Amino acid sequence: MLRVREGDETSFALLLEKHRNSVIHFLYRMVQNQAIAEELAQEVFLRVYRSRETYEPTAKFTTWLFRITTHLALNHVRDRRKDKLHDSIDEKIEDGAPRQLPTREANVEERLLRDARLGEVRQAIEELPEKQRGAVLMHKYQDMEYSQIAAILGCSESAVKSLLFRAYESLRSSLRQFSPGGSGLKAS
Amino acid sequence: MNCILNTNEQEELLLGYCTAILDPETTRTYKRHLASCEHCRTMVELQKMVDESLGDWLPPTLSENFDQKLFARIRAEQEAPKPWWHFNFGWKPAIPLALAAILLAVFLVREPGKSELAQQQDGIKADEIAEVEKALDDMEALQALSTADTAPAAKESI
Amino acid sequence: MRGILLLFLLAFPLYAQDANSPGLQLIERLNRMTPAERQKMLNRMPPARRQMLEKRINNFNNIRPEAREKLKKDYEFFQQLPPEKRDDARRTLKQIADLPEERRKLVRGAVHNLRRQPDEIRDRRLASRAFNERFNEDERKLIREALAVLPPQAEPTQQ
Q1: Could you give the CA distance from residue B51 to residue A170 in angstroms, rounded to a whole number?
Q2: Which residues of B touch A37 (CB under 8 A)?
Q3: What is the CATH number of domain A107-181?
């Protein structure tokens, strides 16, 4: 990024190559629409490029990058909520054209069960408040520590823990029906 | 069934355990706790199911022209004339910016009929750089048309 | 860089008198800035773009004074065209620039010579068989279009 700041455009291309997928995948899971995710990702990298001259390496680059990414994602999710657009999970799955589940097992029944669980968890993610959603996605898919998530979201570590605990609690509730013993499990 | 741990402790240990970030001592302690706490065992099971389902959630393939579109947008932005305030956001140091603003203010509040030199020192706007480039484009094209008079072929042309 | 900019400062006094062409006015304003101000303004540009601009300005500085004066007049005339005509003209000039070298020289030569003709003689020559045989239809079109965007330079001795 320092080389990009000095005007080295090849370095920008390398930076894009390195971080493009993680940004887009995060955005996809936040907005659950691939076209919108790519559009937002374009805006992320445009902002990175525009800000290159003012970039200061005071924090990890990924923190800075995801701060921009999360800001755009949260704004989009909030705007969507205001517009009251709420596609069904089935439409989202088709729109996103997700890749096939990894075929770890040939058992059709198991695969159907995994599909069902995936559908539930995706819907649960969709229903999470946007900050909880962002925190979970960064924690799960970017392997970020609490401190980095806090820096990105602009809150304390304890606030991040609170977001994550509540988010994962919601996700576990959504899958409770699939656990052995079914719905007989007591809530915590 | 009640767990001896409070909610926050449960959650922190649960997540730490399932993401394998607990130190060995804490892991051993938590495992001992799990052996006697059905509630936490259930939570671990559910959390693993959540992790597995999240892991199954694969994003779609990226569009082939993503990079191309991005670079096209960057080029378009670079070529478009920018409003005068655009460059202000690109300035790193705030102090020189503030000093420049003060200097500009001083020039603006000077008495009417300020010196030509002072007038000349008013900053040129950023979008005007694009105007300069455009003027140079046109003049170079016109000049290219006009420099044929010394070419031998030109004398025979018409 | 300061040297180049100082050269810039010294070499553009002729444009200080221009009042109608914004591009020339701006070049003159750049010329009047102190080196520090000019450097500050140009430093906002991406380095490659700034270097290109300085190089072009430097090339411009090095044009002979009389040729520069003539170019200035051509540019002022060009600027007075309506915007859509200016765009058409730019396309024409670009198409001429893109011609193969030999054809480009001939086309430019024709434009240069025909500009110096009084209207009547120019029109006769444009309609002549020699002109039609020397240039293809596209080239003839380019020549006519280029003549429309440049001020005539009819010289009494040519009549």
Answers
A1: 13
A2: 59
A3: 1.10.10.10
